[in-house]
Design a protein that fits this description.
Chain A has 67 residues and is mainly alpha-helical. Chain A is built from 5 helices and 2 strands; from the N terminus they run βαααααβ. In chain A, α2 packs across α3. Chain B is an all-alpha fold. Chain B contains 4 helices and no strands. Helix content of chain B is 85%, strand content 0%. The chains are: A mainly alpha (67), B mainly alpha (145).
Chain lengths: 67, 145
């Protein structure tokens, strides 16, 4: 899923490891999310949005269409 | 999920318990090798039993680490990777069993070919594993019903 995690993180001046610690996951998880290799759980998505004080839709751009 | 722990505390606890688990496994395996080496040198069977005891203690330490950890020892990406690897393993085991078991029965019954005991043990062991999976799946399904 396309996302803006790296942009938001760099804007805050955070490393991947620091952001990972803030939301309670490993650095590898943040790296995989940023590189679009892994779609985070709903819980992690909410935590990231809460940390950056924005809506989930602001940082994640799912390619979802209803038939 | 423990709501009492902050995110950074969860990471800290995960690392702490992972270290405990890794050390337990390391001490257990090392103890087994040291016991075996001591037995080879001294020929004293007690060394083997001590090595086995240390190994089992290491296994117990590992299990205690998993059971007592206040957070999931694996984070969600690690859990996802384990799930995918498990699915691949399950597909392999299922494939070998589906293809191999009937072939083993037919070939050995007709006397055309009798597979080595080790190969037959693997195939029938895989069948047992699939049975265990079926029971585990049934039990898990009940939790979501």
């Amino acid at each position: 899923m396309d996302n803006e995690i790296a942009t938001y993180r760099e804007r805050e001046g955070l490393s991947q490891g620091a952001l990972a610690t803030e939301v309670g996951v490993s650095r590898q998880t943040i790296n995989a999310v940023e590189r679009d290799r892994y779609d985070p759980s709903l819980e992690l998505a909410f935590k990231l949005a809460a940390y950056f004080e924005c809506r989930i839709e602001d940082i994640f751009h799912p390619d979802v269409t209803l038939e | 999920m423990s709501e009492e722990l902050t995110a950074s505390k969860r990471v800290e606890k995960r690392e702490q318990y992972t270290r405990w688990i890794n050390r337990s496994v390391g001490v257990g395996v090392a103890g087994f090798f040291v016991g075996t080496a001591a037995w080879m040198v001294t020929d004293a069977a007690v060394a083997l039993f001590v090595g086995l005891g240390v190994y089992w203690l290491g296994c117990l330490g590992m299990a205690l680490g998993y059971w007592t950890s206040p957070v999931s020892v694996r984070d969600e990406l690690q859990a996802r990777m384990e799930r995918e690897a498990s699915q691949t393993t399950f597909a392999f085991v299922t494939g070998v069993t589906i293809l191999g078991l009937p072939a083993d029965v037919v070939l050995s019954s007709t006397g055309v070919y009798t597979a080595p005991a080790a190969a037959r043990g693997v195939i029938w062991g895989y069948l047992l594993l699939l049975f265990v999976f079926g029971v585990a799946h049934w039990a898990t399904k009940r939790q979501y019903a």
